[in-house]
Amino acid sequence: MSIETVALKLPTFWTTCPSAWFAQTEAQFALRGITADETKYYHVVAALDAATASRSLAVISSPPPTCKYNTIKSFLTDAYGLSEAEKAATLLDIKEQGDRKPSEVMDEMLALLGDHRPCFLFRHIFLRLLPEAIRAPLANSSHNSDYRALAKEADNLYNFLTPIGTCRRQLPLYRINLWRLW
Fold it and tell me: Entry's InterPro entries (predicted)?
């Protein structure tokens, strides 16, 4: 096997979000046509900071003869990513919307799911995080399984119900009388 010579400097590995870091890294590999296992492996190793390299020393000091990249990727993802139990706990403990748009809340929730498919509870967890003024109109939304469309509809309501020039955190207290609009 040979190592491809390609100019690429990856950002330092993100211990707080390995899946996002690997998604960006693999995009860089694709853009530069990097396909060789060893090339990808050594680019990843070069992007580790001292603490991460120390923790990964067993894999770095004696990598397997084949599948080096997948080995280091699996190790780093397992070492720094959230376990299934941690993802579930985080999903259930997500704080209320606050001043975030509903789509930002949905993005956070979907990121925690990873490759898993949302169940019927997912929609209800999302709706409970929204202010009542947004939740009520969405209760009968036709977007039962298209969660991005549901979040977009929530964003539209959020933008409509939030007065311009006011703090968005006041939204749960804000009431609108739709009959006065007619």
Answer: DUF7041
pLDDT 10s digits, 95-146: 777 778 899 999 999 988 877 888 878 888 999 898 888 888 888 877 777 8
Contact of 64 with 118, CB cutoff 8 Å: no
Cα–Cα distance list, 177 to 48, 127, 135, 146, 161 (Å): 56, 21, 16, 29, 11
Q: State the CB neighbour count (10 A cutoff) for residue 165.
A: 5
Residues with Cβ within 8 Å of 33's Cβ and at least 6 positions away in sequence, in order, are 6
Residue 3 and residue 36: Cα distance in Å, rounded? 7
On whether residue 5 sits in a domain, the answer given is: no
Count structural domains, the chain.
2
- Alpha-carbon distance of 103 to 138, in angstroms, equals 14
Query: Which of 145, 143, 3, 84 lies closest to 157, judged by CA?
Result: 143
Residues comprising the chain, all counted: 182
**Would you state the pLDDT for residue 134?**
86
Answer yes or no: do 23 and 99 share one domain: no
- 42 and 131 both lie in a single domain: no
Location of structure tokens 């090339």: 39
Q: Residue 16: what pLDDT?
A: 92
Residue-number span of the structural domain to which 73 is assigned: 18-80
Residue 90 near residue 123, CB atoms below 8 Å: no
